[in-house]
Amino acid sequence: MDKEKKDQSKLENQNLHIDDCCSKPSPLISIESICRPSEEKAQLSLPSLNQPFVVGSIQTPVGMVPQVSSSLIWKDHLGTFRARWGVGRMHYTIEPGLYALGQPDKDAPVLVTANYKMSFDCLREAMPVRDVWILVLDTKGINVWCAAGKGTFGTKELVGRIESSGLDQVVNHRRLILPQLAGPGVAAHQVKRLSGFKVVYGPIRATDVPAFLDAGLNAIPEMRCKTFTMWERVVLIPMELVGAFKPTLIILPILFLLGGFGGQEGFWANAFNYGLFAVLAFLSAIFAGAVLAPLLLPWLPGRAFSMKGLALGLVVGLILAVFRGGHLTDLSSRFEILAWIGIVPAVTAYLAMNFTGALAYGSDHALLPKDGELEKGCFFKTRTIF
Amino acid sequence: MGQLVYIKDVVTLKLDREKCTGCGMCLLVCPHTVLSLTNGSAEIENRDACMECGACAQNCPADAVTVNAGVGCATAVINAALGREGGSCC
């Protein structure tokens, strides 16, 4: 099974390599002739009008483009909430293609984003009373940052989507505004060469897009730097808890019952003494790693997140030890405490380290990743961090 | 919390100043303001802030910037440490 999977992904990689004729131009043949045979025109396709967030449609030379509003309805908010808690998060998508926000005309700017619904919602919510086109790439429901890292928000998808949306017939200009964090996936100069559209990298945060547009497509330095504020960290906590939930469900009963085999009293008396303490200790470790670590991040010692988690875990372990102090009568109780002073920091450090994947860079950024993407493609090298 | 900085001197970012045309694209896409532009050529100014996302190399029309970019979350790091295949978590 595993081998089969590997073979398949190998195959996909090979295909990718062959298809990816655009990244390494051969010196003998012009790129255009390989990538865009003149006789083969991409099929036009527009997103469906029957999506719950579509409020109308706009007539264009290529057909009816679905129109969306900048104000989110309760269903959108519910969707965001659910995705933050990991419910249906891997399938929180919209149809890729061209959308109209407000009443854009042929000169309106074109913004590009991912088909993760939260990314799309953040972008439109950031732009009340604006008339723009939004070109949504098929990133398989993954936010901009992570998709760019994996290459799905990439040159090939962008060029293909421009063609299949008939964008050159919808607008007069040849300019696209991309989220800056799409940079790892998109090669601006190749997009220009292959589609004729010039890529302008906009700000990191969707909320800065209106100011960016008003400033004549200029981003001030603050818009170009990735931050990681308290609120940006807080919104990622639910996903951390959900991630820890499953193993915790299995581990807690085991800890409780194992406690029953220790000590001199009966099974249940032991379970309620040692087992219950074990459960409490483990839950404290989870709480410290998934909730306290993100909150206290800037103030925890060390640079690596695992280090920060370890420090926090030690404090929690010591507090537990003090709390348990009254029972330090015999050797085995002392070993028990010693074991927990070892285990709690380990669990906390692991969870804190996980947060590096979640967070660091997939936070508020909205055109852009809105969400820490633990399983999805957490970009960024932890090597430098740990 | 200010600029995020990682462990020193491990970043694989390289710049070939011979090839650099000074277009400034790498400065634009860098999320950690690692690069700067002096006398018509890019320069690595804040190497240790680099997180190796690869945006600069991808967007360099002159192939002057190289960086060993990659994916990494806790699972990927642990897999790599154990010598398992697949540098990714997903």
Explain what you see.
The complex is a heterodimer of chains A (386) and B (90). With 386 residues, chain A is α/β, with parallel strands linked by helices. Chain A folds into two domains: 22-227, 3-Layer(aba) Sandwich (Rossmann fold); 237-358, no CATH class. Helix content of chain A is 48%, strand content 10%. Chain A is built from 14 helices and seven strands. In chain A, helix 3 links the parallel strand 2 (63-68) and strand 3 (97-101). The longest helix of chain A is centred in the last third of the chain and has 30 residues, at 267-296. Residues 1-40 and 358-386 of chain A have low confidence and may be disordered. With 90 residues, chain B is an alpha+beta fold. Chain B has a single domain (14-81), classed as Alpha-Beta Plaits, CATH 3.30.70. In chain B, 19% of the residues lie in helices and 13% in strands. A two-stranded antiparallel sheet of chain B has the order 1-4. In chain B, a hairpin with a 2-residue loop joins strand 2 (35-38) and strand 3. The radius of gyration of chain B is 15 Å and the shape is globular. Mean pLDDT of chain B is 76; it is low at 86-90. The chains are: A alpha/beta (386), B alpha+beta (90). The A-B interface holds A 6, 148-150, 180-181, 183-189, 201, 204, 221, 224-226, 228, 297-298, 303-304, 350, 353-354, 356-358, 360-361, 374-386 and B 1, 4-7, 10-11, 25, 28-33, 50-56, 58-59, 61, 69-77, 80, 85, 88-90.
Notable features of this structure?
heterodimer; A: 386 residues; alpha/beta; Rossmann fold; seven-stranded mixed sheet; 14 helices; 10% strand; elongated; disordered N terminus; B: 90 residues; alpha+beta; Alpha-Beta Plaits; two-stranded antiparallel sheet; 3 helices; 4 strands; globular; disordered C terminus
